C-alpha cells in the first residue's frame, strides 16, 4: 500500500474538498505549517516531522500478486509494548498527523486500537490506508477518531477482486470488505475513499491476459452506493515505482468510464485520479527528471516500519533510504541524529513523485522578499 500518489480532481470539480485537501503545495501555506516549511527552506532541522507514515506490521491477510510492497512483507511487526511507547513518543512530539499504512495490513496489529486512542487523544490527526478486511473489528475507533480511511479494492466485483486481491484462504474477501465499508460509511465522522488501482497482466508476447480496466465504472457506482466520499483511480506502477505505459485503447476505455462516473458527482461524492494516472493518460515519460539533490519533504514527513525508518514510502525497504531503527532508540533520539538528505532525488527518485512540485517550491520560499499569504489550517496531511 502507499499514500505516495496525490489524487487530482476531475475537470468538473471546483469544491473546497478537491481544491484544498488535494493541493499538496497549497497545504504548505497553512498558518501552523508554514513556519516549519520555512525553516526547512532555510536548511534547518525540525524537532520532529509534521507527518509520519506508520507501518505497524508487515503481515497481510491478502496475497496480491502485483503487491508493490511484496519485498517488505512478512518481516514481523513493531512489538506491542514498543509501538504503544512509540505512540506516546509521537504524542509528545511536534508530529501533527499520522497515517497508518503498510507494508502489511495495519489493522492486523494487536495494539492498533490503543495506538489510535493514544494519538487521537493527543490531538494528532489520523488517516488509514487499509484493505478493509478488519474494519468491523475496530469500527468504533475508525468511525469516531480518524480524519479519513482509504480502502484499496481495485475491483467492482467479487470475481475480479479474487483475481487481483486473493485472500490467503479460499474465499474472496470482497463481500466482507464491502459490508465493512457500508458499516463505516453509516457511522463515519471523517472521509471514506474507494481506491481503484488499474492493473493488467501480460503474456510473453505482450498480450493482455487479465485486467480490471473494465470495472472502473462498476466500482465507482458501487463506491457511491456504499456511501463513500470519493472514488480514486490510480495507475499501475512497477516494483521500482515507475508508471507502466498503457495502450491507447485501454486509456480511452478508462477515460470513457471516468467521464460517465463524473455524472454521478455531487456535493458528497467525487471522482479523483492520481498524478501517476495523469502521467499515463498524457503518455508522459515514466522518468521524471529532477534537478535538485535533496528532498525537502523528507524533513517534513518520514516513514516508520518494523524493519527501519525510511525517508519516505517510495524508499520503504531501500537500505539507502534507511535513516534509523525505531526498535533500537526512542523516536526523539532517532530523529535528532537522522540524516534526511541520504537520498538524491536527481539519481534515486527518477519515477513520478507526488511531491515533486512541493520539492520545487520549498527552496524558493527562502528567497521571498515578502511574507507569504497564509491560510487557516485545514489539513495537516501535507
Explain what you see:
Mean pLDDT is 91; it is low at 8-15. By secondary structure, this protein is an alpha/beta fold. It is 32% helix and 15% strand. Helix 3 (80-91) runs parallel beside helix 4 (112-121), helix 5 (139-145) packs across helix 7 and helix 8 (216-226) runs parallel beside helix 9 (248-262).
What topology does this entry show?
Blueprint (H helix, E strand, L loop, with lengths): L6 E3 L6 H6 L12 H8 L9 E4 L25 H12 L5 E4 L11 H10 L3 E6 L8 H7 L2 E5 L5 H7 L9 H14 L3 E7 L2 E3 L5 E4 L4 H11 L3 E5 L13 H15 L7 E5 H7 L15 H4 E5 L2 E3 L11 E3 L6 H7 L7 H4 L7 H10 L17
Parallel strand pairs: 2-3, 2-11, 3-4, 4-5, 5-6, 6-9, 9-10
Antiparallel strand pairs: 1-10, 7-8, 11-12, 12-13
Look up the CATH topology.
TIM Barrel
Largest sheet: 11 strands, mixed
Q: What radius of gyration results from the CA coordinates?
A: 20 Å
Helix content: 25-40%
User: Oligomeric status of the shown chains?
Assistant: single chain
Strand content: 5-15%
Which structural class should the secondary elements be placed in? alpha/beta
Strands in their spatial order, largest beta sheet: 1-10-9-6-5-4-3-2-11-12-13
Order of helices and strands: EHHEHEHEHEHHEEEHEHEHHEEEHHH
Low-confidence stretches are 8-15
Per DSSP E runs of 2 or more residues, the count of β-strands stands at 13
Summarize model confidence as the mean pLDDT: 91
Shape: globular
CATH architecture: Alpha-Beta Barrel
Number of contiguous helices: 14
N-C termini distance: 18 Å
CATH homologous superfamily caption: Aldolase class I
Question: How many domain regions?
Answer: 1
Q: Report the CATH C-level class.
A: Alpha Beta
Amino acid at each position: 500500500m502507499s499514500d505516495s500518489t496525490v489524487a487530482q480532481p476531475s475537470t468538473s470539480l471546483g469544491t473546497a474538498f478537491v481544491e484544498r485537501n488535494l493541493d499538496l503545495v497549497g497545504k504548505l501555506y497553512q498558518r501552523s505549517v508554514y513556519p516549519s516549511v520555512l525553516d526547512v527552506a532555510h536548511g534547518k532541522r525540525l524537532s520532529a516531522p509534521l507527518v509520519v507514515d506508520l507501518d505497524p506490521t508487515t503481515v497481510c491477510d491478502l496475497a496480491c500478486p502485483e503487491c508493490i510492497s511484496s519485498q517488505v512483507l512478512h518481516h514481523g511487526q513493531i512489538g506491542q509494548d514498543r509501538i504503544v511507547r512509540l505512540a506516546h513518543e509521537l504524542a509528545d512530539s511536534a508530529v501533527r498527523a499520522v497515517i497508518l499504512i503498510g507494508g502489511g495490513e495495519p489493522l492486523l496489529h494487536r495494539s492498533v486500537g490503543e495506538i489510535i486512542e493514544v494519538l487521537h487523544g493527543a490531538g494528532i490527526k489520523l488517516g488509514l490506508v487499509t484493505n478493509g478486511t478488519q474494519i468491523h473489528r475496530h469500527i468504533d475507533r475508525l468511525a469516531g477518531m480518524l480524519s479519513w480511511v482509504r480502502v484499496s479494492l481495485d475491483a467492482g466485483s467479487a470475481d475480479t477482486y479474487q483475481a487481483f486481491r486473493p485472500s490467503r484462504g479460499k474465499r474472496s474477501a470482497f463481500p466482507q470488505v464491502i459490508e465493512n465499508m457500508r458499516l463505516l460509511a453509516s457511522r463515519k465522522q471523517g472521509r471514506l475513499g474507494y481506491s481503484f488501482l488499474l492493473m493488467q497482466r501480460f503474456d510473453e508476447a505482450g498480450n493482455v491476459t487479465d485486467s480490471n480496466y473494465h470495472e472502473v465504472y462498476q466500482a465507482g457506482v458501487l463506491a457511491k452506493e456504499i456511501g463513500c466520499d470519493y472514488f480514486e483511480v490510480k495507475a499501475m506502477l512497477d516494483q521500482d515505482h515507475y508508471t507502466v505505459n498503457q495502450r491507447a485503447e485501454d486509456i480511452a476505455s478508462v477515460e470513457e468510464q471516468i467521464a460517465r462516473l463524473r455524472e454521478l458527482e455531487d456535493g458528497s461524492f467525487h471522482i479523483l485520479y492520481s498524478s501517476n494516472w495523469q502521467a499515463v493518460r498524457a503518455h508522459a515519460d515514466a522518468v521524471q527528471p529532477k534537478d535538485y539533490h535533496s528532498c525537502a519533504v523528507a524533513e517534513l514527513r518520514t516513514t516508520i516500519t518494523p524493519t527501519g525508518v525510511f525517508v519516505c514510502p517510495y524508499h520503504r525497504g531501500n537500505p539507502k533510504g534507511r535513516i534509523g531503527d525505531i526498535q533500537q532508540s526512542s523516536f526523539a533520539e532517532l530523529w535528532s541524529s537522522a540524516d534526511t538528505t541520504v537520498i538524491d532525488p536527481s539519481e534515486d527518485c527518477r519515477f513520478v513523485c507526488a511531491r515533486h512540485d512541493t520539492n520545487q517550491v520549498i527552496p524558493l520560499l527562502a528567497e521571498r522578499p515578502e511574507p507569504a499569504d497564509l491560510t487557516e489550517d485545514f489539513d495537516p496531511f501535507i
